[in-house]
Amino acid sequence: MSRHRNVKNLDIEDGLDDYDYSAEEEEDDLSPEDRAMMARGVAEVQAALGVEAGKVTVAQIEESLWYYYYDVEKTVNYLIKKYINPPAPKKKPPPPQQPNGEFATSVFAPGMPISPQPRQSLASLFWDMPWGNIPKHRETTFIPPHVPRGGLLGGSGAAPKMSKLQALAAARKKKAEEKKAGEKKAEERAAADVEQAQSKLKELSVNETTTTSSRGTASMAGAFGRRLKTAQSAAQGRVPLAANEPGLTGSSIPSLSTSATPSTLSLSEDNRPIDKAPQSSFAQTLFASPLEKDSSRKRKLPEYFALYPDLPQSVIDAFSKPSPDDIVLQAQAKAGKKNAAPAQPKKKSTATALSTKQASAAQVTDKVSELKISDAVLPKSRNLDVPAEYTKSQQKKSASFVVVGHVDSGKSTMMGRLLLDLKIVNERAVDKLRKEAEIIGKGSFALAWVMDSREDERAHGVTIDIAMNRFETERMSFLILDAPGHRDYIPNMIAGASQADFAILVIDAKEGNFEAGLRGQTYEHIILLRSMGVFRLIVAINKLDMVNWSRERFEEIKDQITGFFKRLGFQLDKIAFVPVSALKGDNIVNRSTDPAASWYAGRTLIQELEASDPKPRELRKPLRMIISEVYSTMQSPVTILGRLEQGCVQVGEKLLLLPANQMAYVKAINTNGGEPVDWAVAGQHAEIALDGIIQEYVSIGDVVCDPNHPVKVMKEFTMKALAWDMFWPMPVDVHRGRLHASGKVTKLVAVLDRATGAVTKKFPQAIRKGQVARIKVEVQDTVPLEAGQRVVLRRGGETVAAGLLE
Ligand code: GTP
Ligand code: MG
């Protein structure tokens, strides 16, 4: 029973000596305090159920109490819904909702606690979900988000519309599938097109003089350009696109440079300095099949198709033949023109017998062939000295903070209150939320809904993913990262903590709730913060309105938590305690006016936030940014959001994306949801519109870096890890910010002395709780990592170890 083990063996500083291994064996035994609380809880639940108590067993009551951390009210509600008045079984469960296009997990069934965690055995863990017979409505679907959450940088909680590019991609994919069935037909169509193109050409009768007029050439260019595109599309059996297709950015569709004079016109390749996989607009327009990042496969394909490793061979073959236009151009070349068809000059053409009329047409086409087909002009890098620009700009300091704590401690309510009292959201908006919340019987969550914008979050009254929001004070600008408290969403909390300069730890002061939190995620979050290098903490002891602003309760909690901090090596002068009521708005922005709270004269929460300095910024180091969101914007179908961990970025700059190992260009940057900016620096969260890359190469958790100083992509790494629980060579999940990878501990190199780091034992068989060890970890797919980064290892929903990469 790991929750209990965490508390029993809280003092990891004490190491092994006083580690009680008997506790491991009596896996499911309760501590005396737990036993007392359990007995009291069972009695209270039975009393509350009255005559209905006979319909549930003591074991069921205990199980629910355990899950709800002895919350009698929630337990009673659950038991009634589950056993006493279960809802009539429906014939067909409704399909799961997928709000906001984000991952919709359907582990929640109405009236059921979230992911119940029976404590008896692994087998009973899935008590209601037999393997191989998972009801359709409970299967989990992952859909990548398309917009930033929580209103950051212009995003909203509303379900995103499918972008035109996405709609186009979906349409193309469908077409590609249909094409498989009708490949033969397509080939015939292509052949027919060749004939048609040739016969059309024969009919061409163009007066030489028209070529001298730039106007004439321009219109020809347009016509030719359209023809070229239509013919190519037709040959592929795909929907032809106009060059000005709405919804596509300039980079995705070639534009014909009509202003150029005939003599300077050239039909050139995309001439941007892209190092890898020249992602021409043509290719991007024609293909949309999902990519496999399998480099070995890519190498076997012709260079042009390296981007599209899973194209059917027939499609590749179709492209290995000259297109109808190529045939025409080659024919023209044969007729004596120099510049025709530079791309495939040696292919045999069937169109050999062109008339002189055609030759003159070819002359026109010769000029036209030099038409420059290029993507929209990229903003050029101004090669700014960004750190110097940043100093000159005298911007306000910016800091991001993560809000952590046990489930239901009031984190989201507190942030909603903060934004309301700072007038970032207005009273009317909150009133509207309150009305909506009351409709589903969750009126008390109205303020939390300011942050919790997902439908599933609102329906269940829990935060699931990190929600972000911004606000400014006179001195600083802040980014809120509101983390989930529920144990199932610890990876999201890790992602939030990895982007934070400091943290607000929220503790529920209500009798019993603080204690339950200690056994639960209050303690786990504290250790995770420590492991991730977050040392500045503001401890907001919340819900003091529920204990009548008892100073004793506040001091009691403060003393206990301070003990943990000391043992975990936090510097106490970096930790502040504030007694608050998020619901009533006491000591958040405004000082409490409750006479019972008059004993507190210290800083309010906002004053503590303003007194918190961000971590030092490393602006002169090479760029490092972990992608936390990928979505489409007006500026680019591939727009990323993330925090710059170090270095700077500017518009026009070339970036390397790992592990895809692809280059991209910075088209636009946005750091505050307002006007685009020219640059961003370490510590800021930046939204970057990319060019020269397709979305399939970009994933949440990927790293963006300076191509001249790339991060290493590795399959195995060595780390110095502090064991949270006993571990040995075994499978683990590796967490680094938003990056989550499957892996395994492959080797236990040595146990180290906690103080000096000297080796105390080589090649141990297992690492025991509290020990520090050097270990080797292998990941399934290569991941970009480098020395000094903090990594958390988890297994089966429990944190096993955390530490630094060596
Ligand atoms: P998760 O994100 O799911 O971990 O929860 P949370 O910590 O964000 O808690 P949330 O803000 O959703 O609040 C949970 C419940 O606590 C809601 O019903 C709130 O109204 C209530 N609550 C929060 N703060 C206070 C407070 O200061 N006083 C009282 N009485 N209730 C509060
Ligand atoms: Mg919350």
Protein model, in words:
This protein is of the alpha+beta class and 806 residues long. It folds into 5 domains: 140 residues, no CATH class; 198 residues, no CATH class; 205 residues, Rossmann fold; 82 residues, Elongation Factor Tu (Ef-tu), domain 3, CATH 2.40.30.10; 94 residues, Beta Barrel (Elongation Factor Tu (Ef-tu), domain 3), CATH 2.40.30.10. The protein is 31% helix and 19% strand. The strands form 5 sheets. The chain has a 6-stranded mixed β-sheet with strand order 4-5-3-6-7-8, sandwiched between helices. It has a 6-stranded antiparallel beta barrel with strand order 9-10-15-13-12-16. A 6-stranded antiparallel barrel has the order 17-21-19-18-22-23. The N terminus is likely disordered. The site of guanosine-5'-triphosphate (GTP) has 24 residues, from helix 16.
Helix/strand layout:
Layout: H1 2-8, H2 22-25, H3 32-49, H4 58-67, H5 72-84, H6 122-125, H7 164-181, H8 183-203, H9 214-236, E1 255-256, H10 281-286, H11 295-300, H12 313-320, H13 324-334, H14 356-369, E2 373-374, H15 386-393, E3 397-404, H16 411-421, H17 427-439, H18 455-460, E4 467-472, E5 476-482, H19 490-497, E6 502-508, H20 513-519, H21 521-531, E7 537-542, H22 551-567, E8 575-579, H23 605-610, E9 624-631, E10 639-646, E11 648-650, E12 654-658, E13 662-670, E14 679-681, E15 685-691, E16 703-705, E17 713-723, E18 731-736, E19 739-752, E20 759-762, E21 772-784, E22 790-795, E23 798-805
Parallel strand pairs: 3-5, 3-6, 6-7, 7-8
Antiparallel strand pairs: 1-2, 4-5, 9-10, 9-16, 10-15, 11-14, 12-13, 12-16, 13-15, 17-21, 17-23, 18-19, 18-22, 19-20, 19-21, 22-23
Helix pairs in contact: 3-4, 3-5, 4-5, 8-9, 8-13
The structure holds guanosine-5'-triphosphate and magnesium ion.
Guanosine-5'-triphosphate binds at residues 405, 407-413, 444-445, 448, 461-463, 484-486, 542-543, 545-546, 581-583.
Domain Tr-type G: 396-617
Subunit structure: Component of the Dom34-Hbs1 complex, also named Pelota-HBS1L complex, composed of dom34 and hbs1.
Protein name: Elongation factor 1 alpha-like protein
